[in-house]
């Protein structure tokens, strides 16, 4: 079955461009469009998309609040949110990730990256591009813990290997890269990531990365 996509952006020309790219793929179907967050909520309820391609800055309701209402507590719909951001990293992207977005993508990303990102998010994974993640977290270093705060009790439930995996996830490494770094199989890494998410009550790798920085386990610029 085709992945059902809802396009949310206040610029009609961009929506048209995205539609042309996505409709050229046999496994993707654009089921609707919205020009702001309020329209997006209505469309999500009516159309039940699998993935919402979400702009941040829009009139009436921005992409952060729309994401929060689509994916927040008590929401059991299938929709995953993939946030679109500009090259200079919109200051609201961190809030969108906290709100429940499954990842973010640059608006000027190549067509093949856009298509792949939608497939990844639809499959329940997180779109966490390493280079963008590092730049984003470095940019907001001043808003994150200094490392002097007490470590959350929840981290104490993780094994040493799970802590290692969480740190590598926070650096933006893929399962394959983590496996190579730790000299284990990808299947083992997937198991560790699953345990981390379950123990910390997190939705996906994006929230795990944000948690690692907010808890002070990892600090921007650290290797």
Automatic annotation (TrEMBL):
CDD domains associated with the record: LuxR_C_like, REC_NarL-like
What SUPFAM superfamilies does its record include?
C-terminal effector domain of the bipartite response regulators (SSF46894), CheY-like (SSF52172)
**Residue intervals of the Response regulatory domain:** 4-122
Domain (HTH luxR-type): give its ranges: 151-216
Query: What UniProt keywords apply to this chain's record, in alphabetical order?
Result: DNA-binding, Phosphoprotein, Transcription, Transcription regulation
Task: List membrane-spanning regions.
Answer: none
Residues bearing the modification 4-aspartylphosphate: 55
Q: Which domain of life is it from?
A: Bacteria
Record has DNA-binding as a keyword: yes
Q: Name one Pfam family in it.
A: Response_reg
Name this polypeptide is given: Response regulator transcription factor
């Amino acid at each position: 079955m085709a992945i059902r996509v809802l396009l949310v952006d206040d610029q009609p020309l961009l929506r048209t461009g995205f539609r042309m790219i996505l409709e050229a793929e046999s496994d993707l179907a654009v089921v609707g469009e919205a020009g702001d967050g309020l329209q997006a909520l209505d469309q999500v309820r009516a159309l039940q998309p699998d993935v919402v391609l979400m702009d941040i800055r829009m009139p009436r309701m921005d992409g952060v609040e729309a994401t929060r209402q689509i994916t927040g507590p008590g929401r059991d719909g299938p929709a995953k949110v993939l946030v679109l951001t500009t090259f200079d990293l919109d200051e609201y992207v961190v809030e969108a990730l906290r709100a429940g977005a499954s990842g973010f993508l640059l608006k000027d990303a190549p067509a093949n990256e856009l298509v792949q990102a939608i497939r990844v998010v639809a499959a329940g994974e997180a779109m966490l591009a390493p280079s963008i993640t590092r730049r984003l977290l470095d940019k907001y270093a001043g808003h994150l813990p200094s490392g002097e705060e007490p470590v959350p009790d929840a981290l104490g439930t993780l094994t040493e290997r799970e802590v290692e995996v969480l740190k590598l996830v926070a650096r933006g490494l893929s399962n394959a890269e983590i496996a190579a770094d730790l000299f284990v199989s990808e299947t083992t890494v997937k198991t560790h990531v699953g345990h981390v998410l379950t123990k910390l009550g997190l939705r996906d790798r994006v929230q795990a990365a944000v948690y690692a920085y907010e808890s002070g386990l990892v600090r921007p610029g650290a290797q």
